[in-house]
Design brief:
Elements: H1 4-13, E1 18-23, H2 29-34, E2 47-52, E3 58-62, E4 75-79, H3 82-92, E5 98-101, H4 117-124, E6 129-132, H5 134-141, H6 146-175, H7 182-195, E7 198-199, E8 205-208, E9 232-241, E10 249-256, H8 263-289, H9 295-308, E11 322-323, E12 350-353, E13 356-358, E14 363-365, E15 368-372, E16 378-381, E17 389-390
Length: 396
């Protein structure tokens, strides 16, 4: 639900005179969600909503679709001709000096950059400075309430148990002399999710041997790969409860099909786990001290560990991504590789911590989720894997 007082308080907190939210045919998903239009039929004409740091919001809507913003406070101006649209935008930002928009300088962060360059030019032509709404947007789009936090924890119980299912299935089939493949393990995990009321955007990754060296490998049913004794296996899975507003649990663990894990796998795993733990420690230190922390700083904490171990070139993705109602959410990512993520790590947001080392013969990733509580407490979910799982080891 749109909360005008909360938005205006945030505008003052981040030093903006106003926030200009606009959309054309669903191109600005952040604006649609913040304005309560997500899931509604897409409009065919442009609309604008200006929220000042003080005072009443203002609307600009097309004559064909005058009611698109009726659920929001503020007086509407109706336009028909393009000249009226441009004059209307000038009226919306009148009296404002610094305005937030879904804009990223030099498109440095495409997760934020949802407003086209021409619209930015139009607004700037009125003598207005435009700043990125990145932190504002995540404050109202990427934060979780208590119910979503509870749903994440409930999903976590089933995502973590899916790993036990996968390892047990592989072990049992191999001990029985039967074939087991990547796609069969993937299907078993999907059945497990369905049986516990979970849904997912895409089936999990089950990657054996060299396939695990590809961070976004997908099992291929037309060329299914068997899993055999002596193989290294990576499982990356994500799911959420099949309920409205539910949020994801997204985890990765690794195992070796044998009773004893070879030293080479353990050596690389220890580096990855140390990088994971360094990122978590950076978060704990900052929030315990009440210090602001940006996503790039968390990425650096993990990346420095892997760089120091001589594997910097093998860590080919960011340390973590925002998690929400989609696996990849709209909050700050833990990234100083693909983008220089300057959005703040905010309370009530969740993200993955998942450093990895990817070699030609195998790849190792260790992924957990972190939720920053409303009290700034750092919660780690998914369990910290402390060693490569020996899949054929005896279990009591």
């Amino acid at each position: 639900m749109f909360d005008l007082a909360a938005v205006q308080s945030a505008l003052r907190q981040f030093g903006f005179d106003g926030w200009l939210l606009c959309d054309f045919r669903g191109g600005n998903v952040l604006a649609r969600r913040i304005l309560g239009l997500d899931g509604q039929e897409l409009t065919s004409r442009r609309y604008f909503y200006a929220i000042p740091a003080e005072g009443e919001p203002r609307k600009l809507v097309h004559r064909i679709e005058t009611g698109v913003l009726d659920h929001l406070p503020g007086e509407a101006t109706v336009y028909l001709r393009w000249q009226e649209l441009e004059a209307g935008v000038a009226k919306l930002v009148g009296g404002m000096k610094r305005v937030a928009m879904e804009y990223s300088p030099r498109n440095a962060n495409p997760y934020v950059a949802k407003v086209d360059a021409g619209t930015v030019e139009l607004v700037r032509s009125n003598g207005v400075e435009i700043g990125s709404s990145g932190d504002l947007a995540q404050l109202f789009e990427a934060t979780w309430d208590d119910d979503q936090w509870r749903m994440h924890r409930e999903a976590e119980t089933h995502t973590t148990s899916a790993f036990d299912l996968a390892w047990s299935l592989i072990a049992q089939r191999i001990r029985d002399g039967q074939e087991i493949t990547e796609c069969q393990v993937q299907a078993a995990i999907m059945d497990h999710f369905a049986g516990h009321g979970l849904v997912t955007e895409h089936p999990p990754i089950v990657a054996v041997g060299p396939h695990s060296g590809n961070p976004h490998y997908a099992p291929d049913p037309t060329a299914d790969t068997p899993i055999r004794a002596g193989d290294f296996v990576l499982v990356d899975l994500w799911a959420k409860l099949d309920r409205p507003r539910s949020v994801y649990s997204d985890l990765t663990r690794v195992g070796f099909v044998g009773e004893r894990v070879p030293d080479r796998y353990e050596e690389v795993f220890r580096i990855v786990a140390s990088a994971r733990d360094a990122a978590i420690a950076r978060l704990r230190t900052a929030f315990a001290a009440g210090q602001p922390l940006q996503g790039w700083e968390v990425d650096d904490a993990a990346r420095q560990v892997i760089d120091a171990a001589g594997h910097g070139a093998d860590f080919v993705h960011r340390t973590g991504h925002s998690i929400g109602q989609e696996t990849h959410g709209n909050g700050a990512n833990m990234d100083n590789l693909e983008t220089h993520e300057e959005r703040l790590v905010l309370p009530r947001t969740c993200f993955s911590i998942e450093p990895g080392i990817y070699l030609s013969e195998f790849g190792i990733r260790s992924e957990v989720n972190v939720f920053i509580g409303p009290d700034s407490q750092v919660h780690v979910t998914g369990g910290l894997q402390d060693a490569v799982v020996p899949i054929l080891a005896s279990r009591s």
